[in-house]
Specification:
This protein is mostly helical and 142 residues long. The protein has a domain of 99 residues. The protein contains five helices and two strands; from the N terminus they run H-H-H-E-E-H-H. A two-stranded antiparallel ribbon has the order 1-2. The longest helix is centred in the middle third of the chain and has 21 residues.
């Protein structure tokens, strides 16, 4: 069975019509699934986050006499500045549904969420440690 992925911009009427005509011409039994396209954070912003923000926190902690690796720093930043999500779980003993609040994975952030998260991290590092994170455009030039 062939698997295809197709992205259609429904705001472009001519492209929408073109794709609908293709679908109309299909023969046989097909399963078509559609979902709204979401844009996750870019690799560029992720690279900046790990190199400037996370490494910045590692260096701040080192200046305070504590040795943290990047994963420790990342987890701390998620707790302090990250988005939360709720997860429902069924208690196997009581069969009751329990809701837990968890840190949302940064790999699931949209472009807007990642930008806002980076800005919150920059503010946290400045306010808590007096550390000024280089601007992303300046950072990439160095």
């Amino acid at each position: 069975m062939q698997k295809h992925s197709l992205v259609i911009d429904f705001s472009d009427q001519s492209k929408k019509r073109e794709h609908m005509q293709r679908i109309a011409g299909l023969k046989g039994l097909w399963e078509i699934k559609m979902k709204e396209r979401s844009f996750i954070r870019s690799l560029r912003s992720n690279d900046y986050y790990w190199a400037a923000i996370v490494e910045g926190l590692v260096q701040c902690m080192l200046a305070q006499g504590e040795v943290w690796d990047k994963d420790d720093a990342h987890e701390q930043l998620k707790r302090k500045c990250g988005l939360k999500c709720e997860k429902q779980m069924t208690n196997v003993v009581t069969s009751e549904i329990e809701v837990s609040t968890l840190d949302k994975s940064t790999s699931k952030y949209t472009v807007e969420e990642m930008s806002a998260y980076i800005e919150r991290c920059r503010i946290f590092l400045h306010d808590f440690f007096g550390y000024d994170v280089p601007d992303q455009d300046i950072f990439e030039m160095t």
